[in-house]
From TrEMBL:
Its EC number is 1.6.5.2. This is NAD(P)H dehydrogenase (quinone). InterPro entries: Flavoprotein-like_sf, FMN_Rdtase-like_dom, NAD(P)H-dep_reductase. One of its GO terms (molecular function) is FMN binding. Gene3D superfamilies: 3.40.50.360. It catalyses: a quinone + NADH + H(+) = a quinol + NAD(+); a quinone + NADPH + H(+) = a quinol + NADP(+). It holds the Pfam family FMN_red.
């Protein structure tokens, strides 16, 4: 009889929860409700027809318990523990656009707009640094990087230390691919730009590629840039892909074309990608989200969108960093090229 009553109570609870709780949260609350209902039934010695049907108090208590659990895990002490300022993950953001002709179909600074927005979003602060930095244009909203305003955003990941690699910064030095990094005997033999890029990528914990879409593919300058660098600088790190275009496709075809390239380099892309359609209308020249109403909703929506990617990138990058720091997870142990790299031998690149 007790088992039957528990089952009836649980089914009644399920019917009530199904209407109010999103699908992904339903099972967690139902489990809590079943436990509550079962405990109530098992501790009751008598059952009368005047007893209230299961569901009212059980639903309220289960929902409060679920909310408290979510708050503790997402926004409580755990978030503060994973956000030490001295242990930020370093994200190398590679910009893909080198176009400088200010003519249709896109304004020339569009790639820099996206790069600035990505940098500010990942670092969770206002002032971008590096080759793509600029003064804030008049009329741009500054709430995006205000720490007091950030609490309203539902951030589940700590900020990254962002290092922007802009091929346009090296435009006078990067040739069409003739000698990749692995064809040199040592870092000292490389051209200055390639040595600088190689060292910066080695120090990174994850890679972020920002690409436009040209003829249904990624930027040729981005692919040329990646192919110059050895795979050992990318290996054992996660990556993320952010694409943009002036059309409603958002560069999705260019993003898909980058997946096998980054996978072959050893930095597997996270599943959550960012596609920015009509990026020229979405972002200002300073990299802020256009907010015509001034209520901050556009900014919050954009941050939630890239937040999916940032969370996955942080999750995998943090795990990879911990593995690299452990004796059994050191990539130099199981990969001969990485092992030769650590010893400084001749053929130390993939």
């Amino acid at each position: 009889m007790m088992a039957s009553l528990s089952a009836c109570g649980a089914m009644s609870m399920f019917d009530r929860l199904r209407r109010f709780i999103p699908q992904q949260k339903k099972m967690m609350v139902v489990k809590a409700a079943i436990i509550t209902t079962t405990t109530r039934c098992c501790t009751t010695t008598t059952t009368t027809t005047d007893s209230p049907p299961p569901g009212g108090d059980e639903f309220s208590n289960a929902w409060k318990q679920y909310q408290q659990q979510q708050h503790r895990s997402d926004r409580g002490e755990e978030m503060r523990r994973i956000n030490p300022s001295s242990h930020l993950l370093r994200a190398a953001v590679i910009l893909g656009s080198t176009r400088d002709a200010n003519k249709p179909p896109t304004p020339s600074p569009l790639g820099k707009r996206v790069g600035k927005w990505v940098q500010m979003a990942l670092s969770q602060r206002l002032s971008p640094a590096g080759p793509c930095s600029s003064e804030i244009a008049p009329g741009d909203r500054v709430k995006f990087g205000d720490p007091t305003h950030q609490d309203s955003y539902d951030l589940h990941w700590p900020p990254f230390e962002v290092d922007v690699l802009d091929p346009l910064y090296y435009r006078e030095q990067i040739p069409l691919l003739r000698r990749p990094a692995f064809s040199y005997d040592s870092l000292e033999d490389m051209p200055e730009w390639l040595r600088d890029v190689t060292e910066r990528l080695r120090k990174s914990d994850c890679i972020v590629c920002v690409t436009p879409e040209y003829n249904h593919g990624p930027s040729p300058s981005l692919v040329n840039f990646i192919n110059h660098v050895s795979a050992s600088s990318f290996a054992f790190k996660p990556s993320a892909i952010i694409s943009y275009s002036t059309t409603h496709f958002g560069g999705v075809r260019a993003a898909q074309a980058l997946v096998p390239i980054l996978s072959e380099m050893g930095c597997l892309p996270v599943s959550a990608k960012v596609h920015l359609p009509r990026a020229d209308k979405l972002l200002t020249e300073s990299g802020f989200v256009v907010d015509e109403k001034g209520d901050g909703k556009s900014e919050r929506a954009a941050l939630r969108y890239i937040g999916r990617t940032a969370y996955q990138l942080w999750w995998w990058a943090e795990g990879a960093r911990r593995m690299r720091g452990s004796p059994r997870g050191d990539p130099h142990v199981g990969s001969p090229p990485m092992r030769e790299l650590s010893r400084g031998e001749h053929d130390f690149f993939f």
